[in-house]
Amino acid sequence: MLTRRTISSFVAACGLALVLCASGAAQAQEFVYRDGSTRAPTVEEYLKQAGAGAKFVAHGKLTIDGKRVNCGKRPTVINPNFDSWGGAFPGFLILNTKKIAGLSTQVKLYVYSHECGHQFIGANELKADLFAIRRGVKWGWLDAHGIEEICTFISQLKGDAVHPPGPKRCKLMRNRFRELTEGSGQRADSAPPSGAQMLGPPH
Ligand SMILES: [Zn+2]
Questions:
Q1: Residues with Cβ < 8 Å from 8, sequence gap 6 or more?
Q2: Distance 117 CA to ligand 1 centre (A)
Q3: What pTM was estimated for this model as a whole?
Q4: pLDDT confidence tier of residue 20, bands split at 50, 70 and 90
Q5: In Å, how far are 12, 102, 107, 138, 140 from 186, measured between CA atoms?
Q6: Is residue 160 within 8 Å of residue 17, measured between CB atoms?
Q7: Ligand 1 mean position, distance from CA 122 (Å)
Q8: pLDDT per residue over 79-108, tens digit each?
Q9: Cα 124 to ligand 1 centre (Å)
Q10: ∠ CA(135), CA(128), CA(151), 5° rounding?
Q11: Which residues contact 111 (CB under 8 A, 6 or more apart)?
């Protein structure tokens, strides 16, 4: 449950400087609500502003490369014109399916889960990263190969006012992955042979 305070800090960081943000070259997108205010839009308001290309996907209906995903009961807005891979406002997620199209399945799931993390832990980017890694291990879609793909992806990002540099994010996620998978019989520090099973749930 987001407290009022959490929501306002969330809005400040994620609403103004949207989120998984931006390639090394691009700046974090500033979401400025049409009337000039910076309060977070409702999903209806966001859809209206995003225009014809945007699509509402109810919770429970979203699949990523055939895998059903959810973020509690939160819906997702698919927006091919969004500046980043994904974004989050309190109560809903944004996914740019056009921009994530070239990413591997595990990186796509990381993007979605990172944005989902903001729904639960607020604006902190590193915590949202770790939320995604924990989820990936727990739900069984993240393996040692995937963590390296995520690292390759994120390490290109230089960071900005709210996002630490990509290599730092990579290191923290890799460490968390190791912690979570140690003793599971999987080697976390090298890619498994192709066709290896993904990590199963912890029990
Ligand atoms: Zn983020």
A1: none
A2: 8
A3: 0.75
A4: very low
A5: 40, 27, 20, 14, 12
A6: yes
A7: 9
A8: 999 999 999 999 999 999 999 999 999 999
A9: 7
A10: 80
A11: 20, 85, 86, 95, 100, 103
